[in-house]
């Protein structure tokens, strides 16, 4: 299932517009905060899909019955670009466990690249809701390789993939290569084009560099 929040008119689209805007991007702190705010919106929308249970809450004047999330999700993030997005989700799922994965593009001399996953730090994800975040779902290779690594740890009850922007090709690649029935892909927008270097067009550029500075 693909859920594109950008298709609905809301203030969410203001955050996406500022993330795309080359002038607003010059303010690195605002770029990180907008990633965080987008993460908060995704968290709120995902929360509507979770399981709830009736809980009694004691107030100064009595007892109130409330429907609360019965099990916190696990939030997994691909470093480094995913950190602000991860924080936004944690702002709402503040009792959730976290997983961190290092994945990067290894370029060859002819500018082709492969995805390398070198490190996974994760709690138990078996039979839990897993939210896997990466700001840009370009080719889909990073998400697929990361998820296959996580599946060696356990099988989640449901996988939510969260990306600020995705390409049409990337979405189809994930659907085709993960083959999970319990999968929902959440995006803020889907762009049709990828460059020869596999960057989304119009996209927003390199999210990691914009958030934390250019790397060597």
What report would you give on this structure?
By secondary structure, the protein is of the alpha/beta class. It has one domain: Rossmann fold, CATH 3.40.50. 31% of the residues lie in helices and 33% in strands. The strands form 4 sheets. The protein has a 7-stranded mixed β-sheet, with helices on both faces. Strands 8-10-12 form a 3-stranded parallel β-sheet. Strands 2-3 form a two-stranded antiparallel ribbon. Helix 3 links the parallel strand 4 and strand 5. Helix 1 packs antiparallel against helix 2, helix 2 packs across helix 3 and helix 4 packs parallel to helix 5. The radius of gyration is 18 Å and the shape is globular.
Gist of the model:
This protein has 216 residues and is an alpha/beta fold. The chain has six helices and 14 strands. The chain has one domain (2-212): Rossmann fold (3-Layer(aba) Sandwich).
